[in-house]
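Q: Start with the shorter request: fold the first protein.
A: Done. Sequence, then structure:
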Amino acid sequence: MTEDDKADERASGPRKAEVGHSLSAATSQGDVDRLNSEFYGKIKYPWPPTAFDRVIERGFWSRMLGQDIGSWDRPVVPEGGSVWVGGCGTNQALITALKFPEAQVLGSDLSEQSLEVCRRNADSLGVQNLTLVRESLNEVSYRDRFDYVVCTGVIHHNADPAVPLNSLARALKPEGVLELMVYNQYHRITTAAFQVAIRTMLGTGGKPDLDKELPVARKLVETFTEANFMAHFLKTRAADQDAAFCDALLQPVEHSYTVGSLEALARECKLELLTFAIDAFSKKGGAIDWNLNLKDPGLQSIYGALPDTQRWQITNHMMLTDSPMLWFYLQRTDGGRARKSEQQICEEFAKRKFRKTSTEVEMYLKGQTGTYQKIPEKRPFPGQPRDVAVAKLYGALDEKTTVQEALKKLGANPSFNLLNKARINLTTSAFPFLAAI
């Protein structure tokens, strides 16, 4: 029996509804591939943005990606490197190609309609380093090929997410980095309950039917007025465009995870969690750190002494719906690069010298015909940090002063929490204000 056969056996038969899951249609990998291909062929998610942008400084985002994981001296994606965006949808492969012009980018998706949207937009922007292919993550055979793999919001829409995750792991070069997002179970309890309710009402549980479900779901969102959490939640989705509405509420198959169950899945696929990635959604909501600040010093000491993933598990369970998205960097366990703990990364951050980043961004705006045109004006990037606490440190730094020396001048105690906040808010892809010298 092949691994795919075993996966199909594990996934065979309609599953019971579970908290944070929608699995009634998860009968086999092939069946779910067909469902996803049809679903995203209809909704083409996400919709094209009003603008794309590109940072002028070549290699900028690769250096920042390295800093995300504590690699201060070596970019993750070298000149001439390779990047794979697995399950790229309409935009993500193009955005990635714009971020990494020094690399060749491959975008894969099940939906030819989504790829065609991406292809047209890439052509209008003149992007030359992007190849798009219709293929399933469950069937690809890439091995030791990519420096960087991006797969966000994809593997949890499979009958057995371990199958596509194994494909991603095999595709990484030994020291490559995987950026992965799966649903946070505490974020998806309400949406999964809504999905089960709709499919039970329509009898479409074993074979989801978007054409039947969408109008009923819209009507229920408009008219459900019970004074409860579900009604409050549905009001927040009422104004969504159909693509966002369907992706959030009517996706055919959905698993979700905690930090602990994601770590177990990663281990099964010979991967390990490096550290969390700060995604745009969590950044907008202010949930950018997986570490708690506990008021009791004794409890903080116990919590702070735990390994990273155990601390993050506690944060996940204690913060519930307010915990960040499960958006992490991973690497192969057989790759030969030792994983750095957050404590180690912060200690290295404190001892290093940095330069203040200063480059420009060029913008491509969507016109009335739907194509994108580059505007002549460039804007400075990234500007200066807005967080008052880190802005003081930023102002005290120069290329001859280490972080710990600057903190000493400011009279600040370089605790782990302070260093980690400063590192996150000054040196990561989400806040790219400092580059290591």
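Q: Next, the second protein, separately.
A: Sequence, then structure:
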Amino acid sequence: MRVDAPPAPFVRLGPWPPSPLICAVPHAGRNYPPALLRDSAVPQSMLAMLADAHADALVEQAVAAGARAVVARIARAWIDLNRAPHEVDPAMQPAGSVARPPGARVRGGLGLVPRRLGGRELLARLPSPDEVAARVATVHAPYHAAIADALADAVARHGFAVLLDCHSMPSLGGARAAQVVIGTRHGQAAGRAVAEAALRMAAAAGLRAALDAPYAGAHTIERHGRPIAGVQAVQVEVDRALYLDRAGRPVAAGVQRIAALIAAIGGAAVAAARPLAVAAE
């Protein structure tokens, strides 16, 4: 009897050798493992509300222009690839374990394994500590290793690298609210010149942009951003109303517009990072 292998938790896209630009898409996965659906307390449609719907399409133009990308295929509801391994809900940790106090995201139910959304419990059965550890070992660690490998290859070939961690966000509301948020961990993950280059591209596209508020970036750029070592890492949040209709379906013109923006941000960030790398030599 043939047993099909489970879908890959992520894919690598783009040419080889790598350009200086690497894109990551951690929250667009649409693979819901049977164990997740079995243990869920809500319909799959609610689990899908955790996702950055169709954000994988937003890096296609950057990849076509020469960037490499690491794109999650497994659902965020299974494991959140933009959370650190220690950001685990206390109820999913070994009894008596000594852990860091849970941060605001974990307390809100949006830790490494999401358990609440909008105050509603998502899971009828929480994964055990061993099950959480297995998800880290089989999905989270390989995903971030793939990003690290691509960045290391880019630095070796070009002397520097730029990582764009690509997300979508709900509309922030208000006539002056940002439609694009550039996150740099308040300058820890990327230099000011790189951030300003990204902001200029958003403005050139006719969009309102903000820096580090309300999203300064999370685990991915914190883990991989090392400006002193030649790796500039930026989180890009785009208002999903710019490319999805009210039912959450992609609108072709919107997808193309935002994909062009992501490619432009990547190109501008690379151009801004290159002289910084030369100056550091």
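Q: Describe the second briefly.
A: DSSP finds eight helices and nine strands in the chain. The CA atoms of residues 199 and 209 lie 6 Å apart.
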